[in-house]
Amino acid sequence: MSQQGDLKVLKEQKVSVSGVQADAVAYQYSLSGQNFIIVARYFEYQGYAFIIFYQVFDQNMINTCESIIQTFRLG
Question: Which of 28, 36, 33, 32 is nearest to 58 (CA)?
C-alpha cells in the first residue's frame, strides 16, 4: 500500500559545490504527522548531471550534512 505525503519547497538558492555553481532546494515532507527536511543540490559538471540529496529529521543536522558536502572535490 502506497502512502502519499505533502511536499513543499521551503527555500531555493544558488550555492557552490566544490567550486561549481549549484541550485540548492530545501523541502519539507510531511507524512502521517511527521515532518522531514529534504535538501538537494542540483548541478552539472563536465556534461554530467549530479544531485546531492539528503534527508534529516532535525534542522540542526543540516549543519552536519553541509560540513560533509564542503569536503567534496570534483575532478
Answer: 36
Q: Is 75 helix (H, G, I), strand (E, B) or coil?
A: coil
pLDDT (tens digit per residue) in 12-69: 999 999 999 999 999 999 988 889 999 999 999 999 999 999 999 888 898 899 899 9
| CA 35 from centroid of its chain's CA atoms | 15
Q: Domains in the chain, please, with CATH? A: 6-69 (3.40.1000.10)
Long-range contacts for 12-16 (Cβ within 8 Å, ≥24 apart)?
Answer: 15/41
